Structures are given as C-alpha cells and as structure tokens.
C-alpha cells in the first residue's frame, strides 16, 4: 500500500505534480464507483459517468480544501470522503431528475394506527392539526416551503437546494429555524 500512495502527498498536490494529481483522481474515482455501485440503482454506464463526474468534483473540492487537512486521519481517508459525498449527491439528484418537487402542504403523511387507543388517536389527530395550523400561520413562506418539501415530502436536501438556487447549509438553517418555531408553538398549545 505504501508503494501505491508513494506519490500522493499534500506537498506534491500543492506543487501540482501530475503523478500526484493522477493518483488522487484514481483514488477518488475508485471511491465514487464504490458508492454508486453499492447503491445498485443505476445502469452500469450511467454509474460510470456519474462516478467520473463525482471524482472530478471531489478532486476540485479536495484541492480547494487542502489547507484544512489536519492530519487526524490518513490523507487518503480524508480525501475519500469527498468522493463519497459527491457520488451520493449525484445519485440523489439523478434519482429526482424529472420528478416534481412536492411542496404542497396539504399532502400530510398518514400516521399509522400502531394499535393506539381511541383516546391516543384523538390526541395524535389534535396534535397533527395544531402542527398543520402552525405550519400555515407561524412559518414564513420560505420556511413553509422548505419544511414541507424536506420534512413531509422527503425531498433530498441536495435536490431542493438545486431547485431553489440555494445551498444545503442555508436550507439546513431554514429547516432548523422552522422546527424550532413549530416546537415552541405546539408546546405552547399543550
């Protein structure tokens, strides 16, 4: 293994050495292929194409963040995670390509009975109605859109970020704020 990663060093990458760059790209491609083939949802040719795209994007990310590597793990392990992330994002986006992103708040999920008593079902229904009211009245339109898409309709955050022209971080923050607001309101109603 030491022979295999002999040229892969941070200094060689910073210097832009071709052999180190090629070795890093090969490692990232291997990681992306692993992640995409593990999912087994894509035809081989599509998975290979997405793996190449993921490896390229991961390469850019690794090189951009090279100075943040703290050495708490092997460099190859640290770099590998970039490819896994990129491959996962590409697979989720691919799965949602051509699908409509549901942000209709009237489509609340059905909660299974799970053997609840009549009283427990009534409490559950009242809590769900309070939550629906709070979503309509307490959240901003943007918070409502993000909450409904992510929490209720299961839209992957990468897909929603792309569709809304936003970032994952901004959507996580919006979802966090919406949930906090809903918790406050629904706890006050009890």
Describe this structure in words.
With 190 residues, this protein is mainly α. It has 2 domains: 10-96, Rna Polymerase Sigma Factor, Chain: A; 118-189, Arc Repressor Mutant, subunit A, CATH 1.10.10. Helix content is 70%, strand content 0%. It is built from 8 helices and no strands. It has helices spanning 10-14, 18-39, 44-64, 75-96, 118-138, 141-152, 157-164, 168-189. Helix 5 packs across helix 8 (168-189). The chain starts with 9 loop residues before the first helix and ends with a helix. Residues 1-6 have low confidence and may be disordered.
Write the layout of secondary structure elements.
Elements: H1 10-14, H2 18-39, H3 44-64, H4 75-96, H5 118-138, H6 141-152, H7 157-164, H8 168-189
What is the N-to-C succession of helices and strands? HHHHHHHH
**Largest sheet geometry:** none
Give Rg in angstroms.
22 Å
Give helix % range. over 70%
Quaternary structure annotation = single chain
Instruction: Please identify, by name, the CATH architecture of the largest domain.
Output: Orthogonal Bundle
CATH class call of the largest domain: Mainly Alpha
How many separate domains? 2
Q: Mean pLDDT, as a whole number?
A: 81
**Anisotropy-based shape:** elongated
């Amino acid at each position: 293994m030491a022979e295999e990663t002999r040229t892969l060093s941070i200094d060689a990458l910073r210097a832009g050495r071709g052999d180190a760059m090629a070795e890093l790209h090969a490692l990232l491609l291997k990681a992306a292929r692993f992640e995409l083939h593990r999912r087994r949802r894509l035809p081989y040719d599509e998975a290979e194409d997405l793996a190449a795209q993921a490896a390229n994007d991961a390469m850019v990310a690794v090189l951009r963040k090279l100075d943040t590597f703290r050495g708490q793990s092997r460099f190859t392990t640290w770099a590998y995670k970039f490819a896994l992330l990129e491959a996962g994002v590409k697979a989720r986006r691919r799965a949602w390509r051509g699908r409509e992103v549901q942000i209709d708040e009237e489509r609340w999920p059905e909660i299974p009975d799970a053997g609840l008593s009549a009283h427990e079902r009534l409490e559950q229904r009242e809590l769900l109605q309070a939550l629906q009211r709070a979503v309509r009245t307490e959240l901003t339109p943007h918070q409502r859109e993000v909450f409904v898409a992510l929490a209720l309709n299961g839209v992957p955050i990468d897909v929603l970020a792309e569709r809304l022209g936003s970032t994952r971080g901004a959507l996580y923050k919006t979802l966090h704020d919406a949930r906090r607001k809903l918790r406050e309101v629904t706890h006050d109603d009890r």
